[in-house]
Each structure stands twice: as structure tokens, then as C-alpha cells.
Amino acid sequence: MELIHAIILGIIQGLTEFLPVSSSGHLVLAEEWLNTSLGEESNLQLAFNVVVHFGTALSVIVYFHKRLLALFFSLFDKRKKEEHRMIFFLFLGTLPAVILVLLDKSLFGGQLDEILTSFPLAGAMLLLTGVILQIPQRLKPREGVVTGKRSVIVGIAQAFAILPGISRSGSTIVAAITSGIRADRAAEFSFLLAIPAIMGGMVFSLKDLSNLPSDQLVNFAIGGVASFLSGLFAVYLVLAAVRKGKLGYFGYYCFAMGAAALIWYFTYGNSVAA
């Protein structure tokens, strides 16, 4: 992988991991359009994905470090009931994705991985994400808090975001708002829920780092830094959009990208691997 491609893909991963426009969908499209798919070197691609996901996880950890420290230290203080409930809600919200991954591994032999590289599916699901992002604008303002039932609903939305083109942040924020959670609380819960999701995926993929050749260390490191910086910027941008009720604007972008991807695919379909 060339350095410029590592930087571009790192920026795309960082921005789209938290912007409600689907990181997996954009990486599928970008790898095809930039011709950066590594083909026989698929193990190298997997290793790069681990590095850039670490960068995005670090960005949300840095932004919410005070909140995360409060949750951690509450484990040693029985009086911190609110923090204890939040930890439990994050656990509940993480369960659906964990169950989906375990079912895939045990029943389907990990075949979902093949779906995650489908170019036309990524385009179609980007259109669906565009529709999803229009929902909050058509609802009355919510004032609720995170509860056990609502955290499970958000967790199910996160599990569906395994499909390329379905935005994890977008689907979880919209699911949280739709279930009754106030917009700013919904965004915070979505971002906190991203940490175990991203880190959990990395744990399953750490073995892929063993395939990283020494001549790619610098490129991968710079790609990771690019994903961290762009991810941090994306967190600020999404939170501002949620507070101002502008989340739906990202939906118009998803419509444009999804349509462009499908038009390109059906025009040059013979040269695109589904």
C-alpha cells in the first residue's frame, strides 16, 4: 500500500466512522475507486483495517476521556449508581452485535465477511442510511434518558450496521432518538457504545497484525494517525450537528454517494467485483 493511499483511507475511516455516512461502505467504495484493494494481499488489508480502527477508537476515547474515567472509577465507589447504570446499559447495547458475530462464527463460518466487501450492496445501503437520517427531523423533540430497553434497541441498530453502507453512528443515534432519548444524550450514548464495538472487533482481528511486513510500518502508522485526527474532528462535527438538529443534512450526502456508486457499478459493472 502506497503512503498516499494509506493517508486517504485513514482519513476516510476516521471521518466516516463517526460521521453518519458509514465507514465500511466508504472503504468498500474507496478501495475500488482508488484501486487500493490488495487482492492476494488481503491479509495486509486486514492488518491495515486494525490500525485505522485503533486510530478511530483512540479519537473517541480522547474526546470522552473525562466521562470514561468517571465510569471507570465508579466501579470502586458503590455510591455512583448513575454511572453503574450507564455501564450496564453499555453492556446491554453491546450484546446484540456480540451475539451476531458469535452466530456468524458458529453457524455460518464467518461468511458475513464476504458481504462486507459487496460494492453494490454498499451503494444501496447508503441510500437506506440517507432515509434513516431524515427520521429525527420529523419527530417532536425527545427528553428521555437511556434505559435498559432503549439501550437494547440502540444495540440492535448497531448490529445491523455491520452491513456496508449502514452507518453505525447514524443508525444508533436515530434509534436512540426514536426510542425517546434526548438528542445530545443519544449522541453521547452512541459514541460511548462505539468504543466496545470497535475495540471488540480489534480483539478478533489482532492476529492479522502478524502479517504486517516491516516495509509497511511507516505507511500504516501514518494511516493510523490520519484516522485518529479525522475521527476526532468527526466527533466534534457530529455532536454539533445533533445539537442543532442538522443530522438529516448528512442524509443528502448519503443519497448522492449511494446513487453515484450504483450508477457507476451498473455502468462499469464488468470491472467491479461484487
UniProtKB/TrEMBL annotation:
The chain crosses the membrane at residues 46-65, 86-103, 115-133, 189-206, 218-242, 249-268. GO terms for molecular function: undecaprenyl-diphosphatase activity. The gene is uppP. GO terms for cellular component: plasma membrane. It comes from Sulfuriroseicoccus oceanibius. Belongs to the UppP family. Catalyzes the dephosphorylation of undecaprenyl diphosphate (UPP). Confers resistance to bacitracin. It is an enzyme of class 3 (hydrolase). This is Undecaprenyl-diphosphatase.
